Amino acid sequence: MRKFLLITAAGKGERFGGNIPKQFITVKDKPVIIHALTAFFKYKADIKVTVVIDKEFETGLKENLLKYFPEKEFYIIKGGKTRTESVKNGLETIPDLSLVAIHDAARPWVSRNLIAKGFEHAEKHGSAIPFIDITESVREVDGKLNRSVNREKLKLIQTPQFFKSELIKNAYKSINRLFTDDATVLEKAGFKIHLFEGDRKNIKITYPEDIKLVEAFL
Ligand code: CTP
Ligand code: MG
Predict the structure, then answer these.
(1) How many domains does the chain have?
(2) Which of 65, 70, 113, 120 is deepest in the core (most CB within 10 A)?
(3) pLDDT at 218
(4) What is the CATH number for 27?
């Protein structure tokens, strides 16, 4: 099946702060989003890529894409106010009967191995969502009360998330609420989610201190 990447880069990075969104800052000589794209091109040099972006940063992105990947072509699509809207816009460029990986530009340390596993599992199961175990203790807080939660049953969910394209496209058409990830959208549309083991190094840059971790891994 043909393989596509939809990379979400239209967020403002409010928790991270600073003048430019976190996915465009330079870490180890390259913008964060360029590291993420490089990982996918290492997996498959001719993977088709759609980048969802805020208008304000389009020119800068195009310059960087030309600089680092002069021979590649990209779909550049306008993002929305929320991640859910951004993905919805981007999915319009993805054809049916293919496989799509939806990945956050803010995760530069995605490995080729995880990408390969994800596409394989999605072809078999319809979806493939990477998880990692929780290593810290967890408590549920409800107003002034809080209680312990058995962490064995809880997992942290990462991107990239992989899907048969028509499944996730139809799921996004069927929802009218916001969700933080794509697996939840597919679940709300009535489908079972297939999980596979992710990678602890595949961290999402959210706060400035996350940069130190990413620098250590890249
Ligand atoms: N994203 C997007 N469009 C939005 C919001 C988020 O494409 N309207 C993207 C971000 O660019 C990021 C990914 O979705 O690559 C994950 O979102 P998150 O880590 O929450 O990034 P931001 O929304 O930019 O950060 P914050 O929530 O701190 O503002
Ligand atoms: Mg956000």
Answers:
(1) 1
(2) 65
(3) 75
(4) 3.90.550.10
Q: What is the pLDDT of residues 172-205, one digit of tens each?
A: 999 999 999 999 999 999 999 999 999 999 999 9
Q: Which of 5, 6, 7, 8 to mutate to test the pocket of ligand 1 (most atoms within 8 A of CB)?
A: 8
Residue 52 alpha carbon, nearest atom of ligand 1:
7
Q: Which pLDDT band, with edges at 50, 70 and 90, does 14 fall under?
A: very high
Domain limits at 34?
2-217
The response to whether residue 79 sits with its C-beta less than 6 Å from ligand 1 reads yes
What's the pLDDT at 216? 86
**For the purposes of burial, counting CB atoms within 10 Å of the CB of 192, is it exposed (0-12), middle (13-18) or buried (19 or more)?**
exposed
Task: Give me the mean pLDDT over the 54-65 stretch.
Answer: 97
